[in-house]
Amino acid sequence: SLPEGSKMAKGGGSAGVLVLILVTLLINIQVEGRSYDVGWGFVSYKKLSATKFKRGDSLVFNYPRSVHDVVQVGGLKDYTNCVVSKGARKNKSGHDKITLR
Fold it and tell me: A Pfam family matched by this chain, by name (predicted)?
């Protein structure tokens, strides 16, 4: 038979494990990013340009795939100057989801 204090410590350990599991779940929920639908026009661009994106957020591009595609560029300067690096990822599905890293 264990001393009374040992039984209490054992029960407290179960509560500690439960708290650890809950904290882990909450952290995982917070880490998961938001999803933003990106339209195909100026109004959509203007609305999203004021958004502060975070790591883990996703941009969802919906467009007619027979006419357009989505290419990932190196930054604002490349985007502004329409510079596409050799080997840049090109998305052509018409419904592309890109997760920010």
Answer: Cu_bind_like
Q: Within its chain, how far is the Cα of 16 from the centroid?
A: 30
> Pairing relation of β-strands 58-62 and 35-38?
parallel
Decide: 89 and 71 in contact? Cβ < 8 Å: yes
Print pLDDT tens along the chain (101 aa).
555 555 545 555 566 666 666 666 665 555 578 999 887 766 667 778 888 898 899 999 988 899 989 998 888 899 889 889 899 989 999 999 999 98
pTM of the model: 0.60
| φ, ψ dihedrals at 32, nearest 5° | -65, 130
DSSP 33: P
Domain map of the chain by residue range? 1-32, 34-101
Q: From edge to edge, which strands make up the β-sheet containing 95-99?
A: 35-38, 58-62, 95-99
Contact 36, 71 (CB under 8 A): no
